[in-house]
């Protein structure tokens, strides 16, 4: 029977959910979901000075917005400190760890002397094989006994076999002198106890794997499958930072990128499935694997993100898109829409979503059905409302009042009117746009009229020509 895949995302709650962390979470989620496995969430909150409840909530909110659901309860690493200490003491009982009484000053003096003598600064404690009978009554740390000879081989699904000589690894601290566990110990114990058997994380953790494998070996635990993925760089090839633009997923949410588009785009950063650029979650879960992973850093490209998001907006069902739009308005603290406005939006959605890449773009295109009369006419649109154009609109109104309100009928009325007045359709459309939307760039006048309906269309024409009721 094949072992169930168990992955995890384990962020430190010291700030927002970084876009790189979001991509790591996504890869773990895709790998587990595509194999009927579990995707777990652990908050690595051992750094009490920097960890905050607000940051933890921001991470949870970011994952929720991205649609990355986790299995089971959220695990707090800090709450498991007693278990971490228990494992360190067990390793000492197995003679796989030891007490070291050297002070930080003594260790730094050793390293300084090594630097002066141009020797390796790799620290080896004189307490490693000391007789317990010689232990002083003084503070101590507990260190792992790293093998002094041979090599540690990381068999990585992305990086291949990575070999590190054991004489390049120090005896890392497991418990500090105050009895608190270090991060490196906590990660291994938590992964083991949570049943995590597949560790997918950034390749900046590759060296950590060699040291963490020492704990697995000392405890006789099975090693997880490792997959160290390339980092995300900016368009200039440098490490992604604030100068490249937004870093936190909530910033992308607030800019109005749809979550499905973000998942699709992030999946393509460092991973590929042939030439496929646009795909659904179901396809991504089915396709995702380490064989499609690259080793080089991926470059974040806002244009590609916008393009993918536009395709997802266009492909989303109208009602679902309206629901996402309402969630965007709520998340960005914008006024909620009335039932009447929601109905108009839903009716307009088929043509609104065609070329919008973000929700603000969608809202801008929907201005005609969200604005209330009397409309404010923007300066550019007002230029198309000269006395001649106003006269044309005034003449057109009775024809619309008696027209059947269907696409073909309205097109027939407008074309016949333009022909009879010996004007081009554009000369009629421009003032109509201004009257119906107050803008010069709008959806087609026929689309707007069909969504607004006869009564609202006539009222807006009357507001513009000065012949309607207030």
From TrEMBL:
One of its GO terms (cellular component) is cytosol. Residues 329-462 form the Aminoacyl-tRNA synthetase class I anticodon-binding domain. The keyword NAD does not apply. PROSITE patterns: AA_TRNA_LIGASE_I (PS00178). Coiled coil: none annotated. One of its GO terms (biological process) is glutamyl-tRNA aminoacylation. It is found in: Cytoplasm. GO terms for molecular function: ATP binding; glutamate-tRNA ligase activity; tRNA binding; zinc ion binding. A motif ('HIGH' region) lies at residues 11-21. Its EC number is 6.1.1.17. Keywords: Aminoacyl-tRNA synthetase, ATP-binding, Cytoplasm, Ligase, Nucleotide-binding, Protein biosynthesis. It catalyses: tRNA(Glu) + L-glutamate + ATP = L-glutamyl-tRNA(Glu) + AMP + diphosphate. A motif ('KMSKS' region) lies at residues 239-243. Residues 4-306 form the Glutamyl/glutaminyl-tRNA synthetase class Ib catalytic domain. Monomer. Belongs to the class-I aminoacyl-tRNA synthetase family. Glutamate--tRNA ligase type 1 subfamily. This is Glutamate--tRNA ligase. It comes from Pseudooceanicola albus. The lineage of its organism: Bacteria, Pseudomonadati, Pseudomonadota, Alphaproteobacteria, Rhodobacterales.
């Amino acid at each position: 029977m094949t072992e169930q895949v168990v992955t995890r995302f384990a962020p430190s709650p010291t700030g927002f959910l970084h876009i790189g962390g979001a991509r790591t979470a996504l890869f773990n989620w895709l790998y587990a979901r595509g194999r009927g496995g579990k995707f777990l969430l652990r908050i690595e909150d051992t750094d009490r000075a920097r960890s905050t409840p607000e940051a933890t909530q921001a991470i949870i909110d970011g994952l929720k917005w991205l649609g990355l659901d986790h299995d089971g309860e959220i695990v707090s690493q800090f709450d498991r400190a007693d278990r971490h200490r228990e494992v360190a003491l067990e390793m000492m009982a197995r003679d796989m760890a030891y007490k070291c009484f050297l002070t930080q000053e003594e260790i730094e003096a050793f390293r300084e002397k090594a630097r002066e003598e141009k020797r390796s600064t790799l620290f080896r404690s004189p307490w490693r094989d000391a007789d317990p009978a010689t232990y002083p009554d003084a503070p101590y740390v507990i260190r792992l006994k790293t093998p002094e000879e041979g090599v540690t081989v990381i068999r990585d699904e992305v990086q291949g076999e990575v070999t590190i000589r054991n004489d390049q690894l120090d005896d890392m601290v497991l418990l500090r002198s105050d009895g608190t566990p270090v991060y490196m110990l906590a990660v291994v114990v938590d992964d083991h106890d949570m049943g995590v058997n597949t560790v997918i994380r950034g390749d900046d953790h590759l060296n950590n794997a060699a040291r963490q494998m020492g704990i697995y070996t000392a405890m006789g635990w099975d090693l997880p499958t490792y997959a160290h993925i390339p980092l995300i760089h900016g368009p200039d090839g440098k490490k992604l930072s604030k100068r490249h633009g937004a870093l936190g997923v909530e910033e992308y949410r607030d800019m109005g990128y749809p979550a499905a588009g973000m998942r699709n785009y992030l999946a393509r950063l460092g991973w590929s499935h042939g030439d496929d650029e646009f795909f659904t979650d179901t396809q991504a879960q089915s396709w995702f694997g380490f064989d499609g992973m690259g080793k080089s850093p991926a470059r974040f490209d806002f244009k590609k993100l916008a393009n993918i998001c536009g395709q997802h907006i266009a492909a989303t069902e109208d009602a679902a898109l309206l629901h996402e739009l309402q969630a965007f308005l709520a998340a960005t603290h914008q006024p909620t829409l009335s039932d009447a406005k929601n109905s108009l939006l839903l009716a307009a959605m088929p043509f609104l979503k065609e070329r919008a890449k973000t929700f603000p773009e969608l809202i801008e295109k929907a201005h005609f059905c969200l604005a209330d009369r009397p409309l404010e006419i923007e300066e550019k649109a007002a230029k198309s409302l000269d006395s001649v154009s106003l006269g044309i609109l005034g003449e057109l109104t009775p024809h619309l009042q008696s027209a059947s309100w269907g696409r073909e009928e309205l097109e027939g009325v407008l074309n016949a009117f333009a022909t009879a007045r010996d004007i081009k359709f554009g000369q009629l459309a421009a003032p109509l746009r201004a009257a119906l939307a107050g803008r010069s760039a709008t959806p087609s006048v026929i689309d707007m009229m069909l969504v607004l309906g006869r009564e609202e269309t006539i009222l807006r024409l009357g507001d513009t020509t000065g012949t309607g009721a207030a």
